[in-house]
Predict the structure.
Amino acid sequence: MRILLLGLSLIFSSLTFAAATDDNEIWIDQEGDTLTLYIDQIGFGNKIGKDDFSGSADYMDITGATLTFNLDFTGNQNLLYGALVADSSSYTVNFTGDSNELDWSIGSSGSADTSNYNIVATGDSNTWDIDQGSVASAERLDLDLALIGNSNIFDIDFEADDATWNFDITGDSNNINTLQNDGSDAEINFVLVGDSADIDINQISGTCTPSATGCATPSGIIDMEVDSDNATIQINQKDAANDS
């Protein structure tokens, strides 16, 4: 079943049902504030948004402020793609299943301040790519990620001031690549239980002029607890303007 959502806002919504396909699809093109969006997709090969950022399929263009997302996916090989511009917004995402893909670009064409993420993923061989604040403003960001599973790939890049995120990873052969860039008060709290992990953490907390009393700002904190055999962990933590 294909569901087309157009013009979601406080005062208007439109749903159009198209001919049945092998998979469930939801296309969203939304502009307006104070949207609360609940989606539950259950099954195999469901999709929200474009095939990828360069593909021709529509939509998943969402623009607004004070948005609340609650997305639940149960099954294998499900896809979530799209571009968002959203201030003062929260994202609750639950993935249960294997070989799912998420590719989100948030704030690439407009402000994305005050974001709160709560992500829970259970399954194997999932691929996630989240980018926020690469072009426009992104401040006051809070991310909580709990992952249980093996052979997952997570690439999470946030260029945001006042950013804190907490990773809790349980499973083997997981690959986590994360960038915290562009601001002061950067904090990562990371717990890993599992073998053969490949972890890359870049925490670039801005520029600092050395003095006799040190730097009051910016500050970067990484707190790690690791219980793992054959893990590879690389940390780049520095006061600089550029990624390493």
Q: What stands out?
A: The chain has one domain: 2-207+217-238. The chain is about 0% helix and 55% strand. Residues 35 and 67 are 5 Å apart (CA to CA). The radius of gyration is 19 Å.
